[in-house]
Write a structure and sequence with these properties.
By secondary structure, the protein is an alpha+beta fold. Helix content is 55%, strand content 11%.
């Protein structure tokens, strides 16, 4: 297998994938832009070491990014760009061995599969009458992967001892934290190309066990929901599957975050749904809260800039958010968010004007009478109140923001069945 990993066409494909993904430098400080020259000068030595089974990966660089919702930090391990290429080359050779045998209900980190497919499948389960969900949260999954159990699963299909040794070395590669290299005894660092595949290889045992028991489930990475017809059945499943995970895979279910509940009271991959017999998908409340937080931050940074510039910063955020949540069938939230975003932008204008004279003059320019403009400009209310008041809505309607290129969720939304 190692010969296939280092084969020139496979390495070229891996190189271009790493270059396309960009990303930060690792512990050696080498950037993606410097990678080509480095490989041209050193590939012969690297290839020789990989084939001989003597290549030693560099430690990964520990960085921390905010978790969704601002609840703490999530650690990432950033490999060097050289190690990212080698991991990507390994990934490309290994995926065909496993992917065709992975469960049809595993949707994460797989070509041709997506979170949207998992969300649609979850809705189908509920529409079929499985109106209770076992929402399982694996406690610090990526930090607690047992190396021996994982390598045993990898060895089921990989016979090349050089590849097995290299994968274990990546698992054991040190983590640079505050200038000190720590050697992990368990876990697979998030941040490298190989980690998602390794997580699917390990959790495929869970998928197969769920299938063997005849359960209806969706799994996306370490997010797994099991759909049942009663609370009693759900509690039994949560207990037995938790025991299976702890005994067979040495993984722990987070009891505080896991629950047996109605699907419309839980969130799966950012979505929830209505309680109707034919449930409709909705945007989860946490996703709405996070979007508003990002918009507030961008709006605050745009107070000294033109509205058009602020809108240009908002556009990729809003478009990306909608592309993910376009499956939502309850459209009122899109209308509410559109109105709330326009109000944020009107608030920027009101703050920028500062003086009553400037406010009155600008309202008159937008067609309000002199008397109403002065009354509004001197009402003594704060910027947020004024941004939602009738005088600002009249002066700066939706059509004004449309002309500036503001992305509208409602204008793009099409309800699907």
């Amino acid at each position: 297998m190692m010969e296939r990993v280092v084969e020139s066409s496979n390495m070229r494909k891996a190189y271009w994938r790493v270059v396309g993904n960009k990303g930060s430098a690792g512990v050696d400080g080498m950037t993606v832009a410097e990678l080509k020259g480095h490989l041209q000068a050193n590939w012969a030595i690297l290839k020789e070491r990989l084939l001989a089974g003597t290549y030693i990966p560099s430690p990964v660089l520990r960085v921390e990014i905010p978790k969704p919702g601002g609840k703490g930090l999530r650690p990432l391990g950033i490999p060097t760009v050289t190690d990212r290429v080698i991991q990507q080359a390994l990934h490309q050779v290994m995926v065909p061995l496993w992917d065709k045998e992975f469960s049809g209900y595993s949707y994460g980190f797989r070509a041709g599969r997506s979170a949207h497919q998992a969300i649609r499948q979850s809705r189908e389960y509920v529409a079929e009458g499985r109106r209770w969900v076992v929402d399982m949260d694996l406690e610090k999954f990526f930090d607690r992967v047992n190396h021996n159990i994982l390598m045993d699963r990898v060895a089921r299909k990989v016979r090349d001892k050089r590849v097995l040794k290299l994968i274990r070395r990546y698992l054991k590669a040190g983590i640079l934290v505050g200038g000190v290299v720590e050697v992990p005894q368990q876990g697979t660092p998030q941040g490298g190309p190989l980690s998602p595949l390794l997580s699917n290889i390990l959790l495929d045992d869970l998928d197969k066990e769920l299938e063997r028991r005849g359960h209806a489930f969706c799994r996306y990475a370490d997010d797994c929901n099991i759909y049942v017809r009663s609370r009693k059945a759900g509690e039994r499943v949560l207990s037995s599957i938790s025991r299976y995970l702890e005994e067979e895979l040495k993984l722990k279910v987070n009891k505080e975050k896991s629950a047996v509940d109605r699907p419309w009271r839980r969130t799966f991959l950012g979505y929830t749904m209505t309680w109707h017999k034919e449930p409709r998908l909705r945007v989860g409340p946490e996703a709405i809260r996070r979007l508003k937080g990002k918009v507030r931050k961008l709006a605050a940074s745009g107070r000294g800039r033109s509205l058009r510039y602020t809108i240009s910063l908002l556009t990729p955020l809003l478009r990306g958010w909608y592309n993910y949540f376009s499956l939502a069938q309850v459209r009122n939230i899109f209308e509410e968010l559109d109105g709330w975003i326009r109000r944020r932008l009107r608030c920027i204008l009101w703050r920028q004007w500062k003086r009553s004279f400037t406010r009155a003059r600008n309202l008159m320019k937008r067609g309000l009478s002199e008397e109403r403009s002065w009354r509004s400009a001197t009402n003594g209310r704060g910027p947020w109140w004024n941004s939602g008041a009738s005088h600002m809505n009249r002066a700066y309607p939706k059509s004004y923001f449309d002309c500036l290129g503001l992305y509208s969720f409602l204008d793009h939304h099409v309800v699907t069945s």
